């Protein structure tokens, strides 16, 4: 069995929106500890990993199950979440469906038909990073939106004291600079200078669910995938994004 | 010339 209740359907909508911008489908692996999932986007440029520990739920009961979900359909349903709706996710094993229930003044129940994605689990690689930047989510998001005016990719540079996002266009440039003294920065860790370039469209998709008050952790290396982590309403999201390199 | 790598390059 699997039945889980979340305090805010509207907050979980942000998680589903973010997943749906990068992925077509995902296989939720549920057990008594919580919900986990990981998948790469169809072009294998980005990976998303989701971890919702059971403590994030108001009620939680689960045996081991794999629940394959078509994300566009799930996103459309979650778009119907209203401000005070609670969200119940419930596996109907007989009909092979996930019931998505909005609970407020009454219950509104959608039944989402499941995909067979068993065996399609993605292993998340352990990459080593020396530079870690912890930054306020809105500052990062605004800098990426600024860069989007100039180019379709950015160079991220980190040193022990500074983090920069640069975009170069044919005519115009953009640079966002954050020092460890700046309000936007919680911390900058690292002993060396590193830089990697990334596609901006993916980056903007990855920060889609981020809003004011969210804290984002960035792990950077030299021509290495970017690792990004943040939490939304107790749901831990982790992304990997492959870099662009000069040939 | 810039090239987009995939994550398969790192696994």
Automatic annotation (TrEMBL), chain A:
A molecular-function term among this protein's GO annotations: DNA polymerase processivity factor activity
CDD domains recorded: PCNA
One Pfam family, short name: PCNA_N
Alphabetical keyword list: DNA replication, DNA-binding
Record GO biological process: leading strand elongation; regulation of DNA replication
InterPro entries: DNA_clamp_sf, Pr_cel_nuc_antig, Pr_cel_nuc_antig_C, Pr_cel_nuc_antig_CS, Pr_cel_nuc_antig_N
Residue ranges annotated for the Proliferating cell nuclear antigen PCNA N-terminal domain, each copy included: 1-111
Positions of the Proliferating cell nuclear antigen PCNA C-terminal domain: 123-243
Superkingdom: Archaea
Keyword DNA-binding found: yes
Family to which the UniProt record says this protein belongs: Belongs to the PCNA family.
Subunit structure of this chain's protein: Homotrimer. The subunits circularize to form a toroid; DNA passes through its center. Replication factor C (RFC) is required to load the toroid on the DNA.
NCBIfam families: pcna, PRK01115.1-2, PRK01115.1-5
HAMAP family named in the record: DNApol_clamp_arch
Purpose of the protein: Sliding clamp subunit that acts as a moving platform for DNA processing. Responsible for tethering the catalytic subunit of DNA polymerase and other proteins to DNA during high-speed replication. Sliding clamp subunit. Responsible for tethering the catalytic subunit of DNA polymerase to DNA during high-speed replication.
Name of this protein: DNA polymerase sliding clamp
Gene source species: Methanocaldococcus infernus (strain DSM 11812 / JCM 15783 / ME)
């Amino acid at each position: 069995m699997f039945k889980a209740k979340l305090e805010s359907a509207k907050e979980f909508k942000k998680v589903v929106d973010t997943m749906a911008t990068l992925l077509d489908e995902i296989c939720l692996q549920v057990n008594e500890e919580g919900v986990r999932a990981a998948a790469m986007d169809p072009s294998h440029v980005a990976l998303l990993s989701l971890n919702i520990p059971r403590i994030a739920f108001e009620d939680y009961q689960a045996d081991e199950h794999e629940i394959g979900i078509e994300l566009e359909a799930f996103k459309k349903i979650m778009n119907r979440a209203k401000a005070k709706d609670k969200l119940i996710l419930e596996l109907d094993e007989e009909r092979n469906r996930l019931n998505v229930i909005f609970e407020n003044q009454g219950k509104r129940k959608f039944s989402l038909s499941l995909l067979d994605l068993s065996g399609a689990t993605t292993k998340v690689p352990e990459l080593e990073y020396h530079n870690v930047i912890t930054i306020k989510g809105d500052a990062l998001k605004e800098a990426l939106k600024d860069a989007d005016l100039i180019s379709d990719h950015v160079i991220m540079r980190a040193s022990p004291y500074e983090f920069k996002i640069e975009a170069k266009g044919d005519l115009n440039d953009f640079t966002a600079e954050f020092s460890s003294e700046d309000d936007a920065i919680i911390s900058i860790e690292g002993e060396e200078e590193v830089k990697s370039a990334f596609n901006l469209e993916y980056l903007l998709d990855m920060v889609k669910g981020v809003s004011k008050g969210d804290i984002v952790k960035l792990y950077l290396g030299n021509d290495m995938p970017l690792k990004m982590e943040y939490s939304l309403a107790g749901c831990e999201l982790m992304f990997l994004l492959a870099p662009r390199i000069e040939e | 010339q810039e090239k987009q790598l995939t994550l398969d390059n790192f696994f």
